[in-house]
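INFO  loader      accepted 1 record
INFO  loader      residues=269
INFO  predictor   begin
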Amino acid sequence: MTDLSLVLPGGLPDKRQVAASFSRAAASYDSVAEFQRDVGTQLLERLPGSFMPSRWLDLGCGTGYFTRALASRFTQGSGVALDIAEGMLNHARPLGGAEHFIAGDAERLALQDASVDLIFSSLAVQWCADFEAVLSEALRVLKPGGIFAFASLCTGTLFELRESWQQVDGLVHVNRFREFARYEQLCAGNGMRILALQNQPHVLHYPDVRSLTHELKALGAHNLNPGRPGGLTGRARILGLIDAYERFRQVSGLPATYQVVYAVLEKPL
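INFO  predictor   done
INFO  writer      dumping C-alpha cells
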C-alpha cells in the first residue's frame, strides 16, 4: 500500500525518500557516476567565460565532486555546499572544496538574501516537487547579476526501461520527471533572464539490463515513485523485463536515454 503522505503533486517522490536513498548510496555513488560527471562538466562549460564569482553555492552537492571542481575553477572565491542527504554531506565534507557544508532544502534555502554570485546545481533539482519555489529561492539568494546554472532531467528519461516494464506489468517502475515545456514556462516567468535553456539527450549503453538497474541502485536513483510495486520483483517479471528490453538493443548494447535540461539564468542588475 502506498503511504499517501509521500505522494506529491505530479507524482514526484517525497524529499524524505530522496534524502534517505541518496544517503544510502553515498559510498557507491562515485564509482558509477560517469554520466553525472559528464553532465556537470558540460554545465560548467556553459557558464559565461568571464564570470568569476566571489561566493558560490553548489546546490545538491552530493559527494562533492563539483564542489571541488568549482573551488579549483574559482580560486579567488569561497563556496557553500548544500545537500538534503546527510549521508552525501558526510562523504563530501572531509574531501573539502567548500567553506561550509550544509544540510538543506533547495525549496527553502538557509542563505541570506543576495548572498551568492553563482548557484550551480547538477542533476539535483529534478527531485524537487516545487520547482517554482527553487527558482524563487535562487532569485532571492543571488546577488544582482548573479547566475543560476542547473542541469536536470525531464520527461523521456529512461523511456526504454519504462516501456519495457509497461510490457511486463504496467506498474510504475521508473522515476517520473516534469516536461521540458514546464521548465521553459517556469524559467520564463521567474524574473531571471534566460541566457541558455535546452534539452539534450544523452544515450548510455549497457551489456544487459542488470548492469543498468544495478547502476541506478548504486546511484540512489532507482525507483522512488509513489505507486511503485512493493517487495521483491519475481523472477518471471525480471525475465519478462529482459525480454522486452532486448527489442531496443543496438550494436553498442542496450540503450538508456537521459533527457537532460541545461539552463543558465541571470538575475537582473
